[in-house]
């Protein structure tokens, strides 16, 4: 945890630096009293006043520059000539150029400093012409002004970069939240179809059991068993639906918003039997897809089956969009005893598509949300040999249930 040490609303480091600068100017004021023309207390007083004004040069640069200019004018009017503590004029000039809200204040301060250079040169006691002193003082003043302008430009550039980074981060978070919200709405609609189908099966089987209870008790018992299994499965789907919609956590940073190849109508819920047709559509779009299935496919709940279908669809869509036409994708569907594992690896060696694929999902955001519904895990990242790989592991439920067509 970072602790910001401040005093009177200012950082201790900046305050200590300003105190040191003012202290040196005050010492110069005391040193100037040894070479003064007027009274000691007047010279010391002007030097101390300039030193005190510099304490506020960061917060009020224009006001500090005005105060220092008035004190320097009083010094010139008294005829004291240039004194060591006049370095405060350069410090005030640098501060107003760097910290003022408007550069106009820095330009005005530079003009005033130029007039002060001429007046100070006229009061220098030297055998050389006064304009030589004016050139020397002017070069120092211009150098300080340009240094202040350079630092100001860099400071404003850094501030603009920080503001732009904050704005982009907020936009990314807003887009990710919108993608998650839209994907959850789609998940809710699809799972609603699953639950509605289960309820229809239960009603049909319950009516059949009632009519066959006296005529064929064995058939009635089988129908009641189907009703129980289907109801248990529908309840599990509803629990998962409510759970994912109740989640209020922010989406994971770095979510990629991508597109699906096609969007099915709401009344046509895809299933794994439709995977060959889906792969043929991607092959027609330009991907070279190699598909392998290992293990014995179990009977999956409709919601879990739909999730597997969508993960395959989004993985192939990402490959088509980012790897390009002609890329080779190795797609595998494994069935270990306790899970379903989907793995898609592309070689990243295709040609960019001419037109982007139609939208049908939200890439990694959508896949991550879908997999999370079934307590699964999703890993995605660049492959060791190039390209991109996606692997989703979906644990099997303890009860898969049995569906009977209505």
What does this structure look like?
- This protein is α+β, with helices and mostly antiparallel strands and 406 residues long.
- 60% of the residues lie in helices and 10% in strands.
- The chain is elongated and about 130 Å long.
- The chain has 3 domains: 6-125; 172-246, Single alpha-helices involved in coiled-coils or other helix-helix interfaces (Up-down Bundle); 272-395, Histidine kinase-like ATPase, C-terminal domain (Heat Shock Protein 90).
- Helix 2 (40-53) packs antiparallel against helix 3, helix 4 runs antiparallel to helix 5 (103-122) and helix 5 (103-122) packs antiparallel against helix 6 (130-212).
CATH-derived architecture of the largest domain: 2-Layer Sandwich
Please give the largest β-sheet: 5 strands, mixed
Radius of gyration, Cα only, in angstroms? 39 Å
The CATH superfamily of the largest domain is Histidine kinase-like ATPase, C-terminal domain
Q: CATH topology of the largest domain, which one?
A: Heat Shock Protein 90
Strand order of the largest sheet: 3-4-5-7-6
Beta strand %: 5-15%
Compute the number of structural domains. 3
Order of helical and strand elements: EEHHHHHHHHEHEEHEE
| CATH class descriptor name of the largest domain | Alpha Beta
- The number of E-state strands comes to 7
């Amino acid at each position: 945890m970072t602790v910001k040490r401040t005093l009177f609303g200012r950082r201790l480091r900046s305050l200590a630096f300003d105190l040191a600068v003012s202290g040196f100017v005050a010492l110069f004021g005391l040193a100037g009293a040894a070479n003064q023309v007027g009274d000691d207390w007047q010279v010391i007083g002007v030097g101390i006043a300039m030193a005190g004004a510099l304490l506020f040069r960061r917060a009020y640069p224009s006001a500090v520059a005005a105060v220092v200019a008035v004190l320097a004018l009083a010094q010139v009017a008294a005829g004291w000539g240039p004194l060591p503590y006049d370095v405060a004029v350069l410090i005030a000039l640098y501060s107003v150029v760097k910290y003022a809200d408007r550069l106009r204040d820095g330009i005005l301060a530079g003009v005033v400093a130029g007039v002060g250079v001429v007046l100070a040169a006229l009061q220098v006691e030297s055998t050389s012409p006064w304009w030589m002193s004016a050139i020397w003082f002017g070069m120092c003043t211009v150098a300080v002004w340009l240094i202040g302008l350079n630092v100001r430009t860099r400071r404003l550039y850094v501030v603009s970069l920080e503001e732009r980074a904050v704005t982009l981060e907020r936009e990314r978070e807003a887009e990710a939240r919108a993608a998650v919200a839209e994907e959850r709405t789609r998940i809710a609609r699809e799972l609603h179809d699953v639950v509605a189908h289960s309820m229809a099966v239960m009603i049909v089987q319950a009516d059949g059991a009632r009519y066959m209870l006296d005529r064929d008790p064995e058939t009635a018992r089988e129908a009641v068993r189907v009703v129980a299994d289907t109801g248990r499965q529908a309840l599990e789907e509803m629990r998962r639906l409510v759970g994912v919609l109740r989640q209020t956590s922010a989406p994971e940073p770095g979510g990629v918003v991508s597109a699906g190849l096609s969007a099915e109508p709401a009344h046509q819920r895809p299933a794994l039997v439709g995977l060959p047709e889906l792969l043929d559509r991607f092959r027609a779009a330009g991907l070279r897809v190699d598909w392998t299935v290992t293990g014995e496919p179990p009977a999956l709940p409709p919601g879990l089956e739909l999730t597997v279908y969508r993960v395959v669809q989004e993985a192939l869509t990402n490959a088509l969009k980012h790897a390009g036409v002609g890329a080779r994708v190795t797609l595998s569907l494994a069935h270990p005893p306790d899970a379903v594992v989907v793995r898609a690896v592309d070689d990243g060696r295709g040609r960019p598509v001419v037109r982007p694929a139609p939208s049908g999902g939200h890439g990694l955001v959508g896949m991550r949300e879908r997999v999370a519904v079934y307590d699964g895990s999703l890993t995605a990242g660049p492959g060791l040999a190039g390209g991109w790989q996606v692997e989703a592991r979906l644990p099997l439920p303890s009860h898969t249930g049995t569906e009977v067509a209505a």
